[in-house]
Amino acid sequence: MLKIRKKMIWFLTVLGPLGVVGLQAVNFGLRYDYLTKQYAADLWGGLLWNVGMLMVPTLFIGLAIIASMTAGIEHQTNSWKQILALPVKKSQVFIGKFLLSALLLFCSSTLLAAGTVALGFALRFPAADIPYRELLEMAYYPYLAIVPFIALQVWLSVTMHNQAIALTIGIAGTVFSLFSTRFDDWMPYKWPYLQNAADNPLYSAALGIVFGVVVLYAGVIEFVRKDVK
Length: 229
Prior knowledge:
mainly alpha, 9 helices
């Protein structure tokens, strides 16, 4: 945590959810009459759906940048050997990088939930109608479903000195995710959108957690065996 204080990582953690809420504020502000009429039966549900659609690509690009920046600290200072010389296991170093990225994205998801409620109040949506369960699902289920990609980007960022490659893969994945809902449920890029044949968002979140553990384990094994320079 101390190493990232002087970086823009915390700024990016806040910028993501603020950007999503800000764009939806503009969207609803410019089309208030049309959208409130369209979602008259469920104003909060309409807001959550619109926020959720922007949240997923923001998570994808955000995790790529955050993973790259957290790993880039050691690459820029050529301090991997010094870190690995400390009395800690290589697996613990890798898992620590993963947990740091996951924690920052969790903070972003939490800020997004709070920002969505604030936007709803600003739009004069009834406070008594806030769908708390759906709000939490919108904020945290995509986060859980995207865990495999957090592990993957940390893996790439830690093992690749050239962060441009890791970022390029992350950006390409973000673009691909926009079209992923056309695929069947086996497509991991589709999971954060919480769309599946069972029509149960928990199914997508559970797949993300399970596959995320698999990717994390594979990354740890490869990092432990790799001779990091």
